[in-house]
Amino acid sequence: MKNDELSMKKLLKKALKMVLPIALGGGILVWTYRDFEFWRVKEVLLHEMNWWWMILSLFFGIFSHLFRGWRWKLALTPLGTPPRTVTAINAIFISYAANLVLPRVGEVSRCAILSKYDGISFSKSLGTVVTERMIDTLCVALLTGIAMMGQMKVVGQFFGKTGTNLHSIGDLFTSVQFYIIAFSVIGVIILLYYLARTLSFFEKVKGVVVNIWEGVISLKKTKNIPVYLFYTFAIWFCYFMQFYITFFCFSFTQDLNIWAGLVLFVAGTFAVVVPTPNGAGPWHFAVITMLTLYGVNETDAGVFALLVHSIQTLLVIILGIYALIALSTVNKLNTL
């Protein structure tokens, strides 16, 4: 009976981990698009959207993954036998697709792929991912600082519109937008809790923490730091260009300047931290809110967010499927 109860509890936890992110993102999406004119999406998609710009933006999306794979291989090289480039890149493709199913599971899945196909230590590769996340956090902080200094007025308007203006405490608790942000923050806290639980589990396993730490400090042993920094710059440049170029796909956003692109990119980056599939819900809310501050009407802002997010998510799915097929094919060829 006890084993059955434990199995049920584990199954329930797994179900909640999958259902809660979808429910959170779905709830925010439903509220954000509650009065939306969906016929406008079809009209823009079929008759107004410039697909050439969208295709160009997707190329930047693919290259961001390639640069991340190349950077990861560079970080893993000091730990011993480096992974094959194709394995590292395909692991990145799969990790982003896996995050659509269960937010943040991608970091674990890509380490498991290297362990399975190239025999790389799971715990050591996990350490390099931790280092990656710290560096990415610094990049986001830098971009946020630049965006806030360049567009302080618009950022202030965003806080005021979402009910997070501390000068008006009464508005805080009567603003639906504030509760969206609050629930998103709670979602991030829950995610951090589960990550802490996972790390506490690793601490009980002999030698694993040492291996993780070895992966974390592997950057100190990397011989070609300038190349690592170049890859880091290239990753975030491609991320930004993938988003900014989509402005030129639509008549109602093509006149927005690069500052607007940076502010919306930063807002979207923070929204993606919320544990929903690819940031669905919080990302739409943040982008729509910011676009309206730049003069785009709410319907067109909703069209932009829905189409851009959907197409870019479709790219993640396609790359994930491709990587699964490619890895299995390469593995079969190696065993012949």
Structural class label: mainly alpha
Helix content class: over 70%
Mean pLDDT: 79
What count of structural domains?
1
- The proportion of residues in beta strands is under 5%
| Coarse shape | globular
Q: Tally the helices: what do you get?
A: 15
Series of secondary-structure elements, N-terminal to C-terminal: HHHHHHHHHHHHHHH
CA radius of gyration is 21 Å
Question: Spans of 5+ residues with little confidence (pLDDT < 50)?
Answer: 163-180, 201-213
Explain what you see:
- With 336 residues, the chain is mainly α.
- The chain has one domain (48-331).
- The protein contains 15 helices and no strands.
- α3 (51-76) packs antiparallel against α12, α4 packs across α15 (298-335) and α14 (282-293) crosses α15.
- The longest helix has 38 residues, at 298-335.
- 33% of the residues are buried.
- Residues 163-180 and 201-213 have low confidence and may be disordered.
List the helices and strands and how they pair.
Blueprint: H1 2-32, H2 39-48, H3 51-76, H4 85-101, H5 106-118, H6 122-150, H7 152-161, H8 169-172, H9 176-203, H10 208-216, H11 218-221, H12 225-244, H13 258-273, H14 282-293, H15 298-335
Helix pairs in contact: 2-15, 3-4, 3-12, 3-15, 4-5, 4-15, 5-6, 6-10, 6-13, 13-14, 14-15
Give a quick rundown of the structure.
By secondary structure, the protein is mainly alpha-helical. The chain is 79% helix and 0% strand. It has one domain (48-331).
